[in-house]
């Protein structure tokens, strides 16, 4: 397989980039209680309205801190138009290097840059041929939208973002290529397109106070810029404008790599936000289409004191978890209605037990020296000085299971059937 396995994951809310709509739950919140009390209050109102037209998506490709490293655009020599936020513009040929100091932009290219552009707050770069750029992960990619370089207000440091603005339908092929293996079937790609379109529509619906909607990593959903693979384009065009709805509401199209055979509900996996308590996000029924996934079941050995310190790093001093020591065992103390372990009891070297949600453990484990656990649905105990964990699934387990969707497509199921299985009672609406 050409792509590393780690690229295939729909983790949401597990890194520093957190969608404001999607409150990461912490260990002190009981998701079940919260969702019930909130559901009573908002029964008659629409939580997330269905969009009426196709949004322009703003994807943050890069966040630059400091003024040492310039960013290079259009290394391939493409013609670029550069415009500032007052409408002043000029044309040049790549490569163009851009960075920023206290006074403004420093632009180097084959033309003399008009002086007044230097002091602008933002720059818009456009090119008929797409703009080549090497992103944060050192991948060189081509972007077809308008690339905005936008200064971030900060008294201490020079900071700016590189944000692509493009139509949602142009954005989606680059998500399919980033999220799925290219050989996965067309019906799976189409189901993923509907999920990804619904997910980004949620991000676009709540854009107050933020200058971008999604990032290009699995913290939102992976996105690799322009792609040539005809399958991704077919999957997007055959589902054009189709989004997940429930009554008059948009359903956030959460997805993850492998559910481990038992679904999470979005409330327990993502957070107790009212938008997560819609019926289609309460988990799919029986049937483990993903049982052949590499991480359907897995084993991992971790250092119990490193895991304890990863947890302490995330929780405040007031939290009961701030005193957790070398972890000796993890036990599942609550399963959800589908049989997925959602609440854990951790026993430490002092003999004390600490309870937390599986979702919280997955999030906190991101600080482990060798990286996060594949999921928080784990149990295990110490043998010969290390904590031996058995876990299931990869990612949060809510909504569509990517490996399961691929297997369903292989078995001849349509994208309608895949969506029906993973988002029970959702309707597919063609919004544009
Ligand atoms: Zn699954």
Can you offer a commentary on this structure?
There is one protein chain. With 432 residues, the chain is α+β, with helices and mostly antiparallel strands. The chain folds into three domains: 19-54 and 170-288 and 397-430, no CATH class; 67-157, no CATH class; 297-392, no CATH class. Helices cover 21% and strands 28% of the residues. The protein has a seven-stranded mixed beta sheet. Strands 16-21-20-17-18-19 form a six-stranded antiparallel beta sheet. A three-stranded antiparallel beta sheet has the order 2-5-6, with no helix packed on it. Strand 5 (96-101) and strand 6 form a beta hairpin. Helix 2 packs across helix 3, helix 3 (186-205) crosses helix 4 and helix 3 (186-205) crosses helix 9. The longest helix has 20 residues, at 186-205. The radius of gyration is 23 Å and the shape is globular. The model is unreliable at 1-44 (pLDDT under 50). Bound molecules: zinc ion. Residues 258-259, 261, 290, 401, 403-404 line the site of zinc ion.
Main attributes of the structure:
23 strands; 9 helices; 7-stranded mixed sheet; 432 residues; disordered N terminus; alpha+beta; binds zinc ion
- What is the CA-atom radius of gyration, in angstroms? 23 Å
What overall geometry do the principal axes of the alpha carbons give?
Answer: globular
Tally of DSSP β-strands: 23
Bound molecules: zinc ion
- The overall pLDDT, averaged over residues, is 88
Count of discrete alpha- or pi-helical segments spanning 4 or more residues:
9
- Derived from helix and strand composition plus strand pairing, the structural class reads alpha+beta
Q: What is the rounded distance between the termini? A: 35 Å
> Major β-sheet, in short?
7 strands, mixed
Low-confidence stretches at least 5 residues in length (pLDDT < 50)? 1-44
Can you tell me the number of structural domains?
3
Helix % is 10-25%
For the biggest β-sheet, the strand order reads 4-3-7-10-11-1-12
Q: Per DSSP, what share of the residues sits in E-state strands of 2 or more residues?
A: 25-35%
